[in-house]
Amino acid sequence: MRVTTKGQVTIPKPIRDHLGIGPGSEVEFVATNGGVQLVAVNENLTEDEKLRRFNDVLDRMEGTLDLGGMTTDQYMEWLRGPREDLDVD
Fold first, then answer.
1. Residues 20, 45: contact at Cβ < 8 Å?
2. Which of 25, 47, 49, 63 has a 20 to 30 A CA-CA distance from 55?
3. Alpha helices in 24-71 (DSSP H)
4. Distances (CA, A) of 65 to 59, 60, 70, 80
5. Is 37 helix (H, G, I), strand (E, B) or coil?
């Protein structure tokens, strides 16, 4: 893909279709460590479509976090620190 002199790029049709991007749609470019991510800002999605997209993201994330053998409770304590609301003698 080439950037025009005006800084424009064409989003490929399969990507536009997948993200529900059409004329008048808003998108954001979000900087990441590896480059940039295109995010469709579409508030006209049905609740079913929002849920489907959320589940798609969760499916892609599954198995990407290595806890190094820690249990969920151990990880949460490592992440948050010890709970101060518990009386531990």
1. yes
2. 25
3. 47-61
4. 13, 11, 11, 17
5. strand
- Indicate the burial class of 42 (C-beta count within 10 angstroms; 0-12, 13-18, 19 or more): middle
pTM above 0.85, yes or no: no
Report d(CA 11, CA 21) in Å as an integer. Answer: 9
Q: What is the pLDDT of residues 38-85, one digit of tens each?
A: 888 866 678 887 788 788 888 888 888 888 899 988 988 898 987 777
Burial of 44 (0-12, 13-18, 19+ CB in 10 A): exposed
User: Distance (Å, rounded) from C-alpha 80 to C-alpha 26?
Assistant: 36
Question: What per-residue confidence (pLDDT) applies to 49?
Answer: 79
